[in-house]
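Quick question, first post here. What does this chain look like in 3D?
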Amino acid sequence: MRELSPPAVHASRNAFSLSSQALRGLAIASVAAVVLAYLGALGTQDAPFLQRLAYWAAVIVPGSLLGSGALVLVRHWGRLSAHRWLELLAVALLMSVPHCFVVIVVSAMFFGIGMITPMVVLQFWLAVLLIALVMTVINYLANPRSGDPAAGPAPEAEGLPTPQDAPPPIMQPAVAPAAIASPPEANPGPALPAIPALLADKLPHRLRAGRLLGIEAEDHYLRVHTDLGSDLILMRMTDACALLGEAEGARVHRSWWVARAAVVTASAQSGRMELALTGGQTAPVSRAMQPVLRRAGWGSA
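> Answer (accepted):
Ran it through. Tokens below.
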């Protein structure tokens, strides 16, 4: 039971925008080029300022584009998402190799460098790696993320529970301890689905053993909500839904897939329907899916 929708996914208001990050990186690179040209860094001080500026722009701007590509590759790999500084180092190393040859060509065009030997290449690579590390750190500080990107570090990124992750308190009448100790027997229901292997491989190790609550689209990324927390992965919503069984849940909105067992209540007002999940999240329901969910008995609305 899934909603048919175009593959394009619109961002939520807290979405991480890859395009905006790339533009921010280019802006930072432009400022860095001006600063390095003004300082005459790495022996360029004898050249006229405009020549230095053109040189550093030709060096730094391609590096920024290579860094953006390296960042996408490293985050798509996903194995370092829980180790921010290792991810930073991997991005710098990955971009420094092709960027080294860009810098050699640009330097030869602007200043001439004589014969290119392995020692010359090594010297250029070390200088490029140093600049790549500095620029990557600046870009990371300018693009803080939680899990993948969000504004500022969050407890969720450190594996700590947040109010969003914690289930809402449930007021219950006084009952016998035995009834409290075994709620599944008193109120049997479907269990939360396991996280498909292809999704779990992209998540930090701390979340892989969790059970799936829902999947929320955030621009080019998906936020996977589990009973142990949430994190972002790089995947299309249509591909993620293809990994999930129809009996386990449904794509209730173009930006949400929800596990049926995670739904606490369904509420409808003025033609809008929302599902409250056990983790505290609220998922919107498209108008096309509202009658489908009602017929299937999803909550009470």
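The two ends are 19 Å apart (CA to CA).
The first strand starts at residue 212 and ends at 218.
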